[in-house]
Predict the 3D structure of the following.
Amino acid sequence: MDDGQTILAFSEVRKSFGSGPEALPIVGGVTFDVDRGEFITLLGPSGCGKSTLLNMSAGLMQPTSGSVAYDGAPVQGINLDVGYMTQADHLLPWRTIAGNIAVPLEIQGLPKAERAARIERLLTLVGLDRFGAHYPSQVSGGMRKRAALARLLAADPATLLMDEPFSALDAQLRLTMQGELLRLCARFRKTVLFVTHDLDEAITLADRCVVLGARPTTIRRIVPIDLPRPRDPVRLRTDPRYHGLYAELWDLLSEPSAAAPQAQDAPSAVRMAGAFA
Amino acid sequence: MKIALYRIAFLAAFLAMWEAASNVFDAGFFISRPSLVAASFLTMISNGSFFYNLSITATEAALGFLFGAIFGIGAGLLLGRLKLLADILDPFLITFYSLPKVALAPLFILWFGIGIDMKVILAAVTVFFLVFLNTYTGVRSVSPEQIAILRLMGAGERALISKVIVPSALTWVFTGLRLSVPYALIGAIVGEIIAANRGIGYILSDAAAQFDTAAVFAALIGIVVLSLIFNGIVRFAERALMPWKAGEGTREISI
């Protein structure tokens, strides 16, 4: 695969929920390109339509106007080249951790012996090698998150869509998971679109950070994060350039127009429900 | 252990009061007495009529339960996935559901006679609706996020049904099945009371017609035993088919 080529292109994307005069505009004209192998973070206030952009990339939603193109073609119907990971892990509670990781492998039609070997490797990769036989309800939130990550890697999509996947974790675990995600993405050269409202996360992970304004979402600025890789999420924070970027993103986020509509959080319910209805 | 002793004590006290009440109020005709019930029960066991009639009722209820459950699960899965069909049929299903199924018994006698098949069908119709409605609700309440995530992994309709929809609806299906156990028995026994010459329901109505209160109670004990056995089987199947439920009860909660 050639890095640097455009894989995902948003052009003048607009999205409203409802129709007629009652229509609620969520995304108000977003244009940007994602290069193959690039790590993009989407940073913005909650309820600003970040997830809607992911849903449109996955083909779970169509833009009201404008276009979302994946690999040169407009996204129509389910985009099988992407994998989705959300704040809730959405593991199947009736399958063990290993059984959950097996789901995409079964769908791909991998023979049983090969499946077992892959699952074993993936469990080790995310540090769950002793927990394959446990049910999701028997392990901690962090372990479930790792299991969801392993399942995502088992599906092996070229592009990962991640919607605040670590926001429910405590600070320490979140740093660990960020470190692991960086390591895995570097190793498997994935393209990632990562939604977050956390400034540190947005800087730590990204090649470029797309700063979005409040609803209806437009791009405030795309900030290149030119910090050297490989990165250590903890060490990074002592880098003076990191502080510069943090201040820059903070100023962008707290520009006056962003503050007002943040209070109404109506579309967060619309977010997933609307997408998957 | 201690609780078991209290329970035995409670049962003994209850039986003693029953026996005493029967003597004090001279009400043996209406409530019989435990000693007579036990005697009647033992007679029924020793002459073989108890197990013979119980096995007839058990067969009727079990077959009715089985057919009702199979069609109920099938229809629930189908309508759960075919939104349009469900919308079309909704008012008709609700109308039919609101009809007490026992009221169909005379019609079924007309159609199927007074043999075992009439009781099986009566039980099956009752069970069908309970299992169908629960399965349908279960299929409709499958997490749309889980479906979307599996679709993105390339899952087709068949993989969705076998990997997400059926296991997810299983909890609901079993709720329907557990609710259905007494109704399967109601179908079979009501069928027997209305028209039959064997089965525990027949024993019940026959004993009552002869003012043999002790035998009525003995038949009731048989029905309770049958109901307990059926419930036990469903619970066992539930635990065997849904092992992940075992861990959920012991999970910590955080509010």
Observations:
- Chain B has a mean pLDDT of 87.
